[in-house]
Write a structure and sequence with these properties.
With about 240 residues, the chain is of the alpha/beta class. The protein has 8 helices and 10 strands.
């Protein structure tokens, strides 16, 4: 909330978005970040994932204020080998990706659809915190090396969101500069954190997860969305806060 100092944050205990919104007054802007993010779990329970990602977005829109809906690179199929732009047709391959795409439609016409990717930060569960824990416990970790994207620091995304809400409603791609694979990201985490842990590069097939992932999901804007710093700068800023 640092980028929106007058914002009021609601936890899940205060509002489960699968339910209609609580009575709120003087709502000028809704930042809708609540989501089902368990990609593999969505394959097993697509209805529950949709209840959060689609139904929850409908409920957020019912507040009647302009809405920022945070979407995902997983709305794309991942077969391109050059960055996905706002004008590219979505083609989600997973139940999670489909719910995020349907959530975009549920956001309504007075909404900014902010697609980002591979989000990480200093709180909650994310790849950076997981790698730091595993790197301290093990001599080697196996990490996928055939998925390429833009690891995006949530602090940088929050700052950019302030600029997004000054732009017209619609779809905007906002992701970190640069690109890498998950394995390359893990190696950078260990290097920046000074952790002596090897990364064994594996394929997505070897990992054997239930949900398909885009092999390539680098996002770039053709519409003049705010440009974020390089993902490695985001990693350094995140580690400094941990």
């Amino acid at each position: 909330m640092e980028s929106f100092p007058n914002a009021t944050g609601l936890t899940r205990a205060e509002w489960d978005v699968t339910l209609p919104p609580p009575p709120l007054v003087d709502v000028g802007l809704v930042l809708h970040a609540a989501a089902w993010t368990d990609v593999d779990g969505a394959e097993a329970d697509p209805q529950e994932a949709a209840a959060v990602n689609v139904g929850g977005t409908q409920h957020a829109a019912e507040l009647g204020a302009p809405l920022v809906y945070f979407s995902s690179d997983y709305v794309f199929g991942g077969r391109k080998r050059e960055p996905y732009l706002e004008s590219d047709a979505p083609n989600p391959q997973s139940a999670y990706g489909r719910t995020k795409l349907h959530g975009e439609a549920a956001a309504g016409e007075t909404a900014w659809i902010v697609r980002s990717s591979w989000l990480f930060g200093w709180t909650s569960h994310n790849f950076v915190r997981t790698m730091l824990r595993l790197g301290r416990e093990r001599d080697e970790v196996a990490v996928v090396d055939d998925q390429r994207g833009c690891p995006t620091y949530v602090g940088h995304l929050a700052d950019a969101t302030r600029e997004i809400v000054e732009l017209p409603y619609g779809v905007w791609h906002v992701a970190a500069g640069g690109e890498c694979t998950w394995a390359e990201f893990a190696e950078a985490i260990f290097e920046e954190a000074g952790i002596d842990c090897r990364v064994r590069r594996i394929t997505t097939a070897e990992l054997g997860r239930p949900a398909p992932r885009p092999a390539y999901s680098v996002l770039r804007s053709e519409k003049g969305a705010p440009e974020l710093p390089h993902w490695r700068d985001g990693l350094r800023d995140c580690l400094a806060r941990l």
